[in-house]
Amino acid sequence: MKALPPFISRSDLRQNPIERAETVPSAWYTEPGMKVIERVAIFEREWQLAGHISEIPEPGDSLCKTIAGNPVLIIRDPAGEVRAFFNVCKHRGGPVEVKKGTTTVLQCMYHGWTYLTDGSLRGVPQWDRVDLFDKKDFGLTPVPMEIWQGLIFVNVGDSPEPFMSVVDGISERIAPVRLDSLKFHSKETYHIGCNWKVYADNYLEGYHIPIVHPELAKLLDYRNYTTEAAGHYSLQYSPFQSSDSDNLYGAEDGEAYYYFIYPNIMLNILPGRLQTNVILPVDENRCVVEFYYYYTDPESPGAKKLIADDKAYSEMIQQEDIEICETVQRGLHSKAYNKGRFSVERELGVYHFQSCIKNSLRRHFGL
Ligand code: FES
Ligand SMILES: [Fe+2]
Predict the structure, then answer these.
(1) Atom 4 in ligand 1: which residue has the minimum CA distance?
(2) pLDDT tens digit string along 343-354?
(3) Which candidate among 88, 110, 135, 216 keeps its CA 20 to 30 Å from the CA of 351?
(4) Three-state SS for 246?
(5) Number of CB atoms found within 10 A of residue 189's CB
(6) Which of 85, 92, 97 for a ligand 1 pocket mutation test, highest count of atoms within 8 Å of Cβ?
(7) With a threshold of 0.90, does the pTM exceed it?
(8) Is the beta carbon of 322 within 6 A of some atom in ligand 1?
């Protein structure tokens, strides 16, 4: 068992039923030391969303991501296969890119070593007289990767758990919707002055909708808004009718699924549209949230207005959420607050998320 830091007590790691449970203590949102613990205990262990296949449609297309502090390169190779590597050159740690004008060669942007798209080292300039050097020992290190519903997940941990256990049941639930047929449209990045868990907590409940999002409250059937939680994810679900939602999505009657995949991935699924959100911790008081928008046919003339409306609406809701999250972060720093309680009816998602955090910490500290 590892020693617990002063801001994590054994009793705070205990799980109680939601009816009796307290929220996690405010120190977990305000202590600088939580960041390193969470990186090892959570972000290096869990599968992370890195993109969608439509972002790299052609051989030689690539994505550069930072996953739990690790640079990762995802490429589509000449045969059309998607591959992922730690984006760290084996010479002295430089960044690798697809070499200009090629689809088959990766080149380090420091001293120019070249690799093939299977990661093997190919070219080493000005390397005469170097002894005891075998190129075979200096290939790029692959990163475990899975493609599910067109979404690319990677895991930088040493022993990833099977990916399918993470998303078990989602495909069946959203059928006939398929996310792999959608196409990337755009990305928005938000720099937010709150701990990453404040943003997650806020996403995970509709309890705040009537107060924080009065416009959304008018359009949503709040009574039929339900939350389910199991395993690695929770689901907030709401049926909607086009008459209610004209301003909201311009979509037909259908179903809205808001999946939260632990620890930091949100899949907001509506007919013909997927919006993914990924929360990236920066420090105890800051996070970055990336929104990616995907649509069935983003280039069609009819889609343009629908997409513009959808994005404008998301932006409005997001600004309301940012304001409350930043205010809550200041509240968590107050000496007047430590732990709260949960609405059994409305905060199952938050309770589930915080239970997952406790599980990760217990495992990390060997409890
Ligand atoms: S670090 Fe890549 S070639 Fe030197
Ligand atoms: Fe909100």
Answers:
(1) 111
(2) 999 999 999 999
(3) 216
(4) coil
(5) 9
(6) 92
(7) yes
(8) no
